[in-house]
Design brief:
Elements lengths: L1 E2 L38 E2 L6 E3 L1 E3 L2 E6 L3 E9 L6 E4 L9 E2 L24 E7 L4 E11 L3 E6 L11 H22 L12 E5 L1 H6 L3 E4 L17 E4 L11 H23 L10 H14 L6 H7 L4 H4 L11 H5 L10 H18 L3 E3 L5 E3 L2 H10 L4 H9 L3 H14 L16 E2 L6 E2 L6 E2 L3 E2 L6 E2 L6 E3 L3 E8 L2 E6 L6 E7 L2
Parallel strand pairs: 1-13, 2-5, 11-12, 12-14, 21-23
Antiparallel strand pairs: 3-25, 4-5, 5-24, 6-23, 6-25, 7-8, 7-22, 9-10, 10-11, 13-14, 15-16, 17-18, 19-20
């Protein structure tokens, strides 16, 4: 995390010649000549093949030439946040706004210049303990060429003695793997206090806050709206609890990799641009930090987050943990947008979207000694970090694609990957590859079994006749339907600005 300054039945017909969504025969006079000899809206598909549907004000349609089982990829390119549009029998209902939870105000820590350091040195830090800002004294417990470990000497620690063997293991991997990889992939790390080191501050105030760790951009110069700052590259880390699975060496390293990326992002996106304020959507930055967990080789806890953006609705008992909760508007637009109920799925989707764009840019490869080799993906990442554009504009500036063109390809890839019926790289994520240094796998597998118990089944797909009949603005629904030869049409509220594809699966 980072702290910032301030049941329906669809309208379907499967008999050739029945009326289209607008009550008349589909009018092909407005349709462009594709140059392929195939009329737009004609779905002459074998298993695994994909065709675009025609979008009109009242819905989407296609002529089906081959009977079979299909998934309708129904996406919205409407730009609102939190709006749900009807389809099928609900197509004529008013759009419904699903209010987001206001983003909680989060206070910012405070500032003292860092002097040359030795083990045993002390200094004050201003930190947040979950209810208020407080000043603590911390002591240097570990010191290396690249990292200094501070330990809070003021706040009573209810966990017990800190396991310094664990901290030593974290420090070793952080220095030897995470730091060089993050600089290689994302760009140079700042050094605003000129001490040449990243600071890790272990404090029970972070446990009191209810976090594993956090950073504040105030510390490195993004100061608008800050209460104060501590003047340096600082990761505020909770005291490891030996009874908590998040307290293993690898789990803590994954956490600090995540937090370090927040600092790198702020340095390149704002500080180097001469800006003291930030307006990026929080889910963009969380998506990038999840990419850091993945690309530095610690893609473990991250799996549970992106799984929530596909389908963990049965596990949690809510569709807020599924693709139905995802919207690119809620990820890319609005610096203050935050939704408590959908937080996990929005974080996971941000990672999945960025991972998809990274792979489409060329991705990277890993050699037997753990060396990462840019194949275009790293260059694309650095373009994003170093461009002043944010959100939607950053997508379009760095990919050269319209957002909704990229979105429809991404939504298609989410439901195609792992089915084994289509090998087009535009519609598939890369196969996972093991990192020879860490043993974890890069990337995603929508049908993986995580840690032997969480069986993933890809993104949530609804039978059309059982669907809830609402698609989120900027989001997608996957609707399974069995079709005969003839006209297939689906009414959709015009405000949804629908775009749709058909994927034949049987």
């Amino acid at each position: 995390m980072r702290l910032l300054p301030r049941t329906t039945t669809a309208i379907i017909s499967t008999l050739a010649g029945l009326a289209a969504c607008n009550g008349s025969e589909p009018d092909d006079t407005f349709l462009p000549d594709t140059g392929t000899g195939v009329e737009p809206g004609t779905a002459d598909l074998q298993v695994g093949e994909i065709a675009d549907m025609v979008s009109e004000d009242s819905g989407v349609w296609a002529q089906i030439l081959n009977p079979g089982t299909y998934i309708v990829i129904l996406a919205s390119s409407a730009e609102e946040q939190g709006t749900l549009y009807g389809y099928g029998e609900q197509a004529k209902s008013a759009a419904r706004v699903d209010p987001a939870t206001p983003r909680p105000a989060r206070p910012m820590p405070s500032a003292t210049p860092a002097p040359p350091l030795q083990v045993g040195d002390t200094r004050e830090f201003t930190v947040y303990n979950g209810t208020q800002m407080t000043t603590i004294e911390a002591e240097v417990m570990q010191l290396s060429d690249n990292v200094v470990v501070w330990v809070d000497q003021t706040t009573p620690n209810e966990i017990g003695d800190i396991d310094m063997d664990t901290i030593d293991g974290v420090l070793t991997d952080f220095e030897s793997i995470v730091i060089p990889r993050e600089e290689r992939i994302f760009g140079e790390i700042s050094d605003v206090d000129d001490d040449g080191r990243l600071a890790v501050l272990l404090s029970y105030t972070v446990n009191m806050y209810g976090a594993q760790a956090y950073v504040t951009w105030c510390d490195i110069g993004v100061t608008d709206g800050c209460w104060s700052n501590n003047g340096g590259e600082i990761i505020y880390l909770s005291i490891p609890d030996p009874d908590d699975s998040y307290s293993s060496v690898d789990a803590i390293v994954e956490t600090v990799a995540h937090e370090l990326n927040h600092l790198i992002y702020a340095y390149h996106k704002y500080v180097l641009q001469g800006s003291t304020s930030a307006s990026e959507n929080v889910y963009v930055t969380e998506g990038w930090s999840a990419m850091a967990q993945d690309l530095t080789g610690y893609n473990n806890g991250n799996q549970y987050v992106w799984a929530a953006a596909m389908d963990m609705s049965d596990f949690y008992g809510s569709d807020d943990y599924s693709i139905q909760a995802v919207s690119l508007n809620d990820i890319l637009r609005g610096s203050s947008y935050y939704d408590y109920d959908r937080d996990g799925s929005l974080r996971g989707a941000a990672y999945l979207f960025l991972r998809y764009l990274f792979e489409q840019a060329g991705s990277m490869s890993v050699e037997a000694d753990g060396t990462l080799v840019d194949q275009g993906g790293m260059t694309w990442i650095q373009d994003w970090f170093d461009t002043p554009e944010e959100g939607v504009e950053a997508v379009e500036a760095t990919t050269g694609m319209d957002l909704w063109e990229a979105a429809l390809d991404w939504y298609t890839a989410l439901v195609v990957t792992g089915r084994g019926i289509n090998d087009d790289p535009v519609y598939n994520y890369e196969d996972r590859v093991e990192d020879p240094l860490t043993g974890y796998e890069f990337g995603i597998d929508p049908y993986d079994t995580i840690h032997g118990w969480l069986e993933l089944t890809g993104p949530k797909v609804q039978l059309l006749e059982e669907a809830d009949g609402e698609v989120r603005a900027g989001g997608v629904d996957y609707l399974q339907v069995t079709l005969d030869e003839g006209l297939f049409e689906l009414a959709v509220d015009s405000g949804a600005a629908p775009m749709a594809r058909l994927l034949r699966i049987e």
